[in-house]
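Collaborator request, handled under Task 6.
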Amino acid sequence: MNQRFFFLLIGIVVVSFGITQNAYAVTVYPGTVIGNSHQNLTANVSPYFNVTSITANSTHIFFNDRYFDFSSIHGLVPANITAFSENNNIRLHITSLGFADITLKVKGKVSSVQLNFLTFVYGDHWLYDGGTNETTINVNSRQDVYLSFTSTPTSATVTTVGSIASQTVHIQSIATLSSPAWATIWNQQLYVNGSLYSTINYPPSVIVLGSNTLGLQSVPGVLYTTSFQTRILVGSNTGNITITGNIINFGSGPRVPDPPTLNAITEGPTTIRFITIPGTSPGTSPVKDYSLQCKLNNGLPIFIVTNSTLPPGRLFSYTGLSPGDSVACKWRDGSSVGWSGFSNEANAKAGTLSIVQVLRIPDSNPLSKVIKWIDSMGGVYFGFSVIPLAVMLIGMLATPKTTGIFALGTLFIMGMIQGAGFYVYPNWFWGIMLLLGIIIVLGRANEKER
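Structure tokens returned to the collaborator:
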């Protein structure tokens, strides 16, 4: 008995005994009949087609794990299999003209359908049944059926639109599918200010070509300007992808100021100055108040200023310190609406006066870095720091003696004033004094040569 005759014989047996279940071989030759109580499928692919397995029972005819079931109230539906590629596509030709109500049910989701060589979009003559993972095609009286199970990567966009009423924002998202004919939507996520807020998980659901209105998501109690964005997870036969929508902004009601930026500057052995830079936005009402929370020597934070009028220049001097004390503070701005969030924590240490004022931006000046390093290494000696001391030593070398004594006394007093933190002489002034001292020394050397 040759192989082709074996297949034909088995097919006839199945047709005759519809309730019997049989498994077929992997190579199917033309003329092989596979049937049950409501359909006969005859292989008509030359020279043959391959399939992992074929199983027929009274309800389904399986090609591997996917079934194809014709049905009609008029009786047995005869059809030829004219093309077959497992898990890719199949073409079926109904050989009888006496049927007008043929339905084809397929296990799994079909990606495209042609009836009599015309392509039908999803929803037109074919639909998914999410509960059974089944596709139903209304063939009716058409004779040629082509089904494809492969699709191009999903191409879609998500448009996020919204409205606000009574401080509740309502977000409506629309998914526009451009490829393939369908995509399975798994979930819809709403992000508020960049963080995940809520998720809608869908049962096996489908979006189709064109616009698809998705579920409505609401966010109550939106007082300030807030960003909203939708992301959806969709899939096709080639896998799942996440599609991100546009960002929209909504908000109502009053708004507090944005948090400021705080800097700390050492002014001497007993004082640290804190300076703030306003936040990006003052909110919906002008900033008029401030509060300051500080930690002394890593102790517990306490409010040094609880609620006070904003000072000129946004400056606060923390006084009464001892050399070596460290202070770390946070500042917040206040308006008639309320308080901003706290600023960054700024800290400094008293008792090591900086000759070059701490810059508010990263210091890229090599000379400033060297001077600050020398000053930090030398600290404060007898009320004056390293550079004033150097200027005084140069003055001591001057002649006549009266010039040296005058320079020594003047610079000593200046050093005491600056070292105590009562006044910080500008850098340019110390530079001039240093230059004058060098000129005096050079003048003395020239006098000796004479």
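The cover message to the collaborator said: "The chain has five helices and 31 strands. The radius of gyration is 43 Å. Please let us know whether this matches your experimental observations."
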